[in-house]
């Protein structure tokens, strides 16, 4: 099912790894990872990673992703929360996205709703003159 590469060391965290779900493999279940996950097979479930998640050209994922960086070359359906989402030329994302950076290459497809992920919610100050408009209609407050 997965290949765990333990050649790299990350400071203070023990061995770094990269888990791969190979083409032809189907998995149902949730993953919680410190390290990267690459999907060339099929996964139905939720992924939480402190690192990167990538879906290869033959990869399909149905579920939710919470990760630092997500790259989609295959197919994804569900919701994604990340710092940066890249949908490459053959990638397809259907669902909801919350990210600070959204990159869609030519040929990439996104259908759904997107929201910019902000460190702190911004307040828009209310000014009474905002109630005035130039439409010719009178604003009536009851």
Sum this structure up briefly.
The chain is an all-beta fold and 142 residues long. The protein has no helices and 14 strands.
Structural account:
The chain has about 140 residues and is mainly beta. It has a domain at about 20-120. The chain has no helices and 14 strands. It has strands at about 10, 15, 20, 25-30, 30-35, 35-40, 40-45, 45-50, 50-55, 60-65, 70, 75-85, 90-105, 110-115. A hairpin with a 3-residue loop joins strand 1 and strand 2.
The average pLDDT value, as a whole number, equals 83
Task: Characterize the largest beta sheet: strand count, sense, and whether it forms a barrel.
Answer: 12 strands, parallel
Structural Rg: 20 Å
What is the approximate shape?
globular
Secondary-structure element order, as H and E?
EEEEEEEEEEEEEE
Q: Supply the helix-strand structural class.
A: mainly beta
């Amino acid at each position: 099912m997965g290949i765990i590469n333990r050649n790299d060391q990350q400071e203070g965290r023990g061995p770094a790894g990269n888990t791969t779900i190979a083409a032809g493999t189907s998995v149902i279940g949730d993953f919680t990872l410190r390290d990267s996950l690459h999907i060339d097979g099929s996964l139905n479930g939720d992924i939480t990673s402190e690192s990167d998640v990538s879906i290869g050209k033959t990869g399909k994922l149905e579920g939710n992703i919470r990760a630092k960086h997500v790259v989609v070359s295959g197919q994804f359906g569900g919701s994604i929360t990340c710092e940066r989402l890249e949908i490459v030329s053959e990638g397809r994302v259907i669902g909801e996205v919350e990210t600070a950076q959204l990159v869609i290459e030519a040929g990439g497809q996104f259908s759904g709703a997107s929201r910019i992920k902000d460190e702190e919610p911004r307040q828009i100050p209310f000014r009474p003159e905002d109630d005035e408009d130039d439409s010719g209609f009178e604003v009536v407050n009851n």
